[in-house]
């Protein structure tokens, strides 16, 4: 279902992937610095989640300014929270690369503003912890303030997220967190000798099982 989400005096293009049965939880998903919501990884994950009963709303927000991207993400969260068509108990924010930084920023700001627990967790696909070859400047400030569960899915050969550095940041985080390493994958999740469909199957199944665990915990 295609929708246009109000954002200031503009609109963001978005698509709902809707499960057959009514969903009580959803995922909001966005792309990295390049591309848009039709990036194949996002389309694949959205379809997988919907086929397993989780509503997924993916949206496009062009722009390389992280503050602007975060504001757009927040507008999408508000839109879904007040939607009459999909009355959800909670959502998980998810993004690829720069999109996951925007999601982390939104969660940090929302946690400072209210006690509302509509946002249940964060999924970071290829979180860009540092620029290539610039490991001295880490983009970890938002991660250290987050309290809700966080899942990182990263390639062990990601040139923007060195393995030991992400593990070091995770050890300092106060949030419950998990890291799933895709062996030998780069920032774009390409692995020599494996098809992209095969890699996406691993990512999608892992994201879904983590979501299911966290939704089950909410219901206890």
UniProtKB/TrEMBL annotation:
Database matches in InterPro entries: AB_hydrolase_fold (IPR029058), KANL3/Tex30_Abhydrolase (IPR046879), NSL3/Tex30 (IPR026555)
Residues annotated as domain KANL3/Tex30 alpha/beta hydrolase-like: 27-207
Leader sequence segment: none
PANTHER family: TESTIS DEVELOPMENT PROTEIN PRTD, TESTIS-EXPRESSED PROTEIN 30
Name listed for the protein in its UniProt record: TEX30 protein
